[in-house]
């Protein structure tokens, strides 16, 4: 059931904005990636891996490579420049479809749908390289650890498994009495169609005595979350979306402006859109008086202008998980692997720590 839900989420991402879902630069959202530029980022990334492989003599051979969670093939295509054959696997049919369309290496590159919590379609010792980056973080730890054991199993002796995984959750420094801010939305009312996305200008004011955000000496990030109230049934639809505050610090009394993109509910009707400030973990800030409420009419699709964008009524969700390094080590060793190197990075004090593993057997 969990993998089915995971597949549905990423299949929608693959249908709506596949390049951004794979490489989530904020300015590239809503299908703004140039395809050539997008695939060039993969060439650069695999080039850095190739340098490590050259310097460390792993893998022993460069015949077959596996790209796990390949998406549309950004990195699989780049790997084809260094290995005889490459296989990309992904859980989302829409991603695999696009990857096949983008393939420029013919039979040298193969894409497969993998809907299992293992790699049972590949025999033990199949690949010289197993590669994955920015994938395991979106999978629950118990499942991610099982995949890691599979990476070792399908690896040839003397091969290399390279994978990335967040290893320590962020520990942000909020003041003891908390933070507080208010949200104001423009316009005061909204009309949209089922399956469309509206963009609302919002103003956020820091109404507490402490700086909010991330910057020098400040480590109290915040975001806006939204949910829908259905006036026809009194139902509430939570966790519908969010927008992080941009990098920087908002001083007490200061106001900043943001553009909030809102996907429609899945059914037509009369709703109230509620925009609420929250901390990094999505916990609402304040008692609700500081939220913005926007009456919204949601029309049927056929009533809307054809120029409005089409998106899935069901909103996809990208999970974020952490797997401690000691658990990864235990699983790798139990599977018969050996960790050659671990490189850990932390972009900001108290922020998320990510680890990059180099494993052989």
Automatic annotation (TrEMBL):
InterPro entries noted in UniProt: Methyltransf_11 (IPR013216), SAM-dependent_MTases_sf (IPR029063)
Domain of life: Bacteria
Residues in Methyltransferase type domain copies: 66-163
Signal peptide extent: none
SUPFAM superfamilies: S-adenosyl-L-methionine-dependent methyltransferases (SSF53335)
Cross-referenced Pfam families: Methyltransf_11
Name the record gives this protein: Methyltransferase type 11 domain-containing protein
Organism: Pseudodesulfovibrio portus
